[in-house]
Amino acid sequence: xxxxxxxxxxxxxxxxxxxxxxxxxxxxxxxxxxxxxxxxxxxxxxxxxxxxxxxxxxxxxxxxxxxxxxxxxxxxxxxxxxxxxxxxxxxxxxxxxxxxxxxxxxxxxxxxxxxxxxxxxxxxxxxxxxxxxxxxxxxxxxxxxxxxxxxxxxxxxxxxxxxxxxxxxxxxxxxxxxxxxxxxxxxxxxxxxxxxxxxxxxxxxxxxxxxxxxxxxxxxxxxxxxxxxxxxxxxxxxxxxxxxxxxxxxxxxxxxxxxxxxxxxxxxxxxxxxxxxxxxxxxxxxxxxxxxxxxxxxxxxxxxxxxxxxxxxxxxxxxxxxxxxxxxxxxxxxxxxxxxxxxxxxxxxxxxxxxxxxxxxxxxxxxxxxxxxxxxxxxxxxxxxxxxxxxxxxxxxxxxxxxxxxxxxxxxxxxxxxxxxxxxxxxxxxxxxxxxxxxxxxxxxxxxxxxxxxxxxxxxxxxx
Length: 464
Prior knowledge:
The chain is built from 16 helices and eleven strands. The chain is α+β, with helices and mostly antiparallel strands and 464 residues long. It has two domains: 254 residues, DD-peptidase/beta-lactamase superfamily (Beta-lactamase, 3-Layer(aba) Sandwich); 117 residues, Serine Threonine Protein Phosphatase 5, Tetratricopeptide repeat. The strands form three sheets. Strands 2-1-9-8-7-6 form a six-stranded antiparallel sheet, sandwiched between helices. Strands 3-5-4 form a three-stranded antiparallel sheet. A hairpin with a 2-residue loop joins β6 and β7. The longest helix has 41 residues. It is globular.
């Protein structure tokens, strides 16, 4: 009896410690659910969410519609395109082949793709991984297939920049990575990724290049319910469920497929505030401490934020782009840490765009401040992005002077942001005002020393 009493006492004490933790997790789950449910009611989130903390599931849900018709609700078994996050499979494929001694990162592209022009002799595989190849981007308006894109590259006479010197994030780097993987492995990219990456990571429902008839494939759509075509001109797009992407994240974090050295190569970017093959993150020795990557494709958007030290992962997948996934992550991270959090809102830019009409010059700033004051409860005007997006919209319409007024005002609101000065410099550059362009690019570089574009344009403007 005495032994039984001691055991009961131990069990009782254990419950005293377990129950508060369980209640804490439940309250956090309730808070996250409140954020997601309200966001859905506001029309600013339609998609799937997974939150892990201390390696336990805190929250998971599917909310909204699987396509523009509104007749099919999302489930957690639905797959999503993940935009640039899918580029992780290209980068990981290259590194896996390098681990096996089947290629070197310093091999030139021409070694594997000899039908390309002579510029392929100057590009190393590492340049493709770092987005420093000097290649132009894919001609999205005319390219419909891989063959179209290869034909364009075969007709390319010169690179934009010297390989290895200037960062330029574009899809031709990824396209050639995939072509090299096929050449070296002797398999299609789809087969290679499926057999060598997805299945070893446990991703049994992920699929490369889904079609319109693929079951449980969500379809992306705009705010006015126009559905996008599912296929993308350049092949190699991997669609995943929440669980698939979590399994991939864990495979990367725990070096299930790639060695720590290989992981490090594609985790750290060419320069600060730039993208690497795995997006970005950090390692301490041979231990992964952070992995962050976001992606956009048509109206699909995805975000993966992993903190292996805390056993914490946040995954957000949406098929109705609102450009607010980082806002959701911030709110979720604060809830998990017991800190105050802010409810994500609608993008202020969208409200601006709907009300611009014939406003010009200073009238645009008046409109911005009026809408900000009147609709601050529903729309987000807090960051630099609202006016920055407005400025680029105006430039796209050829309204350079109006864009300059908007960008100038943004620099007064965010004087410590290298990005807003870069935008203003670009507007002056397009106007032909080289003196003011130089001043603003220099200021941008002071605030963001890793701005390679600013360095390149400053060198151009100061050349004799």
